[in-house]
Structures
1.
Amino acid sequence: MKRLILAISGASGIVYAIRLLEFLIQEHGVDLIISQNSMAVIKSENFHELIDLENMRDKFSNSNLNIYSDADITAPTASGSYRTDGMFIVPCSMKTLSAIANGYADNLITRTADVMIKEGRKLIISPREMPFSSIHLENMLKLARIGVVIAPPIPAFYHKPETIDDIIDFVVGKLLDCMGIENNLYRRWNG
Ligand SMILES: Cc1cc2nc3c(=O)[nH]c(=O)nc-3n(C[C@H](O)[C@H](O)[C@H](O)COP(=O)(O)O)c2cc1C
């Protein structure tokens, strides 16, 4: 069992985070951080259960899940002394990407990412924008050069998806692969 952090920032693609969360809490401890700015996206993408953090806590009360707002800078994940195996940021906005690339640790998500980097722990971010500007790309390159995994939610079609869920599971399966977590969420290429 691992202890993992999942941060949701205000980019489109909340569905990937939900699917990842559902998978992780089956076997792992999860610290979930939700950005205040993501609330507008969460509403527009119809994941209303995420808006009320108290409801979320009730819903997942039997699992090893902690939920924090990104305003809670005193949460355990803000310190390197809190043991974790790594962090996902899914989806990652260009604003959060920029803050991390520049060490601007102004909220719990960017501070926790800063901790992952300074402690040499796994940080996997799924930046979502289209198109990317050269600023976005430079920020990604800066992070990739220090070992941050840049894993945007780009689907493939060689596994012959038949439903939107198949496409979502492909992206989530690849994110789990990046963290070294066993999964059979998508059909792998066998030659
Ligand atoms: C409906 C909606 C969709 C958005 N989608 C994106 C997106 O895909 N990528 C992105 O970088 N920002 C997107 N934004 C803008 C971010 O939410 C905004 O930059 C915000 O400041 C990000 O803050 P955060 O990273 O702290 O969550 C979106 C905003 C809204 C309201």
2.
Amino acid sequence: MQQIIELIRYATMAPSGHNTQPWKFSLKEDGIRIFPDFTRSLPVVDQDNRELYISLGCALENLVIAAKYTGYDPEVEYFPAGEPEECLLVTLKHSNVTGDNNLFQAIPKRHTNRREYNKQQIPAADFSKIGSVPTKDGVTCLVLTEPDDIGQIIDLVREGNRIQMNDNAFMDEIISWIRFSDSEAEKHLDGLTSRAMGSPSVPGWLGRMFMRFFVSAKSQSKTDGKNIRSSSALIVIISEKNDKRSWVDVGRSFERIALTLTTLNIESAHLNQPCEVPQIKNQLQQHLALGSAHPQLLLRIGYAESLPRSPRRSVQQVLI
Ligand SMILES: Cc1cc2nc3c(=O)[nH]c(=O)nc-3n(C[C@H](O)[C@H](O)[C@H](O)COP(=O)(O)O)c2cc1C
């Protein structure tokens, strides 16, 4: 039993949009179910729950990697009929083969690093390791390093900030998930903490006032532009289809890439605005000549000192 609880703990170390941790788990005689927790959805930035299912995919991939490492042969079923609610089902059979130790060890070390990076080049051998991470069927990973591409993406991120940050509902939603003080972070054990974003702990009222009156689309775009230019490369994760199963597979593929980056001491941070705003997503599709394929996640990667970890709720809090 302790082993199963530990597998769930590893699953909860996954990244999620705004660190909402939109998952619940339950135990079956021979496996674990992962349910979407729609009480933790982001109805403004993620209207169709696309990023919620990507986050579930990240948790699923952690669970699979941890299960393989622990000596199981996990079998995954997507939204199987006959379950009490929509879920991902991981059936655990014992196996003699142990899984990838490096990826398993990377799970607790992986984190989003929003610092400015140091422009250091990524060695060719590491690029080829990133390029050869196995992604799920219908999911691909594009690595961008050309200055023209980077310049275009900076423009799209700026346009995304302009649309999102001038929308009061977007600002209300993100502010509601920021934990400005250490005590707010400890109380909720979720959300975007000041410290994980590279800022000091401040009283909640002060942080909220700062966000409302001093953070603008313009200031955010300036920071994003500087951060992108400080990065060694950009990564776009693309899927052929745009449905629930594909979103889960994007999450699974992304998590493997993020863990591989961690094993190479390469940091990563998201800039998903261009994938979130429909009209900008079209421009990104055209710029990258994706045809009808869907850009799902946009990340910058590079080198920087690490940042404090984001909190997670305990297994007891996510187990139903
Ligand atoms: C689907 C998805 C979307 C995300 N979108 C953004 C984003 O647009 N901007 C950002 O800074 N971080 C984004 N993140 C990163 C999360 O905020 C981060 O995973 C979460 O705060 C937990 O922190 P950790 O990754 O350090 O564990 C996203 C993560 C996921 C899985």
